[in-house]
Amino acid sequence: MIERTPAARRTVLTAAALAEPAAALSGYTIGVTADGRKDELAALLEARGARVVLAPALRIVPIADDAELRSATRACLETPPDVVLVSTGIGMRGWLEAADGWGLAEPLRSVLSAAYLVARGPKARAAVRAAGLQDRWTPEGEGYEEVVDHLTARGLSGRTVALQLHGESQPEYAEALENAGARVIEVPVHRWAPPVDPAPLHRLVDLITARLVDAVTFTSAAAVHAVLRAAPGTDALLDALRADVLAACVGPVTAAPLRRQGIPVVTPGRARLSALVRTIVEDLPKRALTLQVAGHTLTLRGHAAVVDGELRPLAPAPMAVLRELAHSPGRVLSRAALLQALPRGADEHAVEMAVARLRAGLAVPGVVQTVVKRGYRLPV
Question: Largest alpha-carbon pair distance within the chain?
Fold first, then answer.
């Protein structure tokens, strides 16, 4: 796991500072599963105060010399498709570059120009037009379901559809097109491969399950599948994503595998990294728990507490104790009960140490109250 911590996290931020855009995500830890453009996404999140955990779920391996792509290209030249679905801009550019290397660029352009070109989103459309081709239609929501419905309504019986893949096959959509009477040629421009070092991904899965990250970003459906596969038992991971960890996806296609698992997902109106970050800025703070405790306003924000408008970062053990107390406001929790919130192997002395560190970190007396021979509580 690669954890990036902005310098701003090392100081106590005031209410005025928290109101600034640069601190909008202060106190939160966010996982980034992307490989390509991961540094750009991390920088956007860090610029707003977040702590970022980099854990690429996959890496894209170009297959310009792959026999499957060459075979699919020749199939398109021998039986020119009536419809071509361009799924991604990078895929369209990669296909044309590979064809150029084989001396097939002009024949392929001729075939594409005669087809009914569907660009699945603005990046795909931009790549089509940059290649001197003209797209005929683009779905509003960038979803494959919309594309299938549109093409089916136009009529596909006896027609050939070239489906440009991005990373992995889309069997459900290819099957839907075939059921409508089409012959489908899958064009595998890229393939996904596991990360060179899988340790950060497995560590991120552990952090999600333990609720030690507040949000996870996804920029491809393949990355979603990779994270789910990396979980030794997916139930704990799914439970965390359904209840406590925000899943933020760049678009509806990326979000689809999570939604099928009953996981609530936030997506921006446009499939852009900057829009994804703005969506997180809007949604994540809304999930924060705020209480009035001993005359103070206390908000739990990821790995930090905000006390009367001042952000106070806390270590994992004190934060876990505070979260447990806050979820039972006013109730007395015994040391044995609080022990369940700490890592395995801890004892009741560790609870006392965590409470002491919590009080020191909050720097406000009376927020964590000791009830003699019973335990601790927040006097809400």
Answer: 84
> pLDDT, tens digit, for every residue of 252-280?
888 999 999 999 999 998 878 999 999 99
Are both 248 and 266 inside the same structural domain?
yes
Q: In which band, very low, low, confident or very high, does the pLDDT at 368 lie, cut at 50, 70 and 90?
A: very high
Domain boundary (156, 177, 192) is at 192
Q: Tell me the residue range of the domain where 351 lies.
A: 289-377
**Of the residues 166, 192, 218, the one at which a domain ends:** 192
Bridge pairing between strands 304-307 and 296-301: antiparallel
The Cα-based distances of 346 to 40, 154, 341, 352 in angstroms read 39, 64, 10, 11
Answer yes or no: do 81 and 188 share one domain.
yes
List, in sequence order, every beta strand (DSSP E) within the chain: 2-4, 29-32, 51-54, 59-62, 83-86, 116-119, 160-167, 183-193, 215-218, 246-249, 265-266, 289-293, 296-301, 304-307, 310-313, 369-371, 375-377
Q: Output the pLDDT for position 30.
A: 97
Same domain, 66 and 188: yes
Q: What does residue 319 show for φ and ψ, rounded to 5 degrees?
A: -65, -40
Both tokens of 35, joined, read: 């490989």
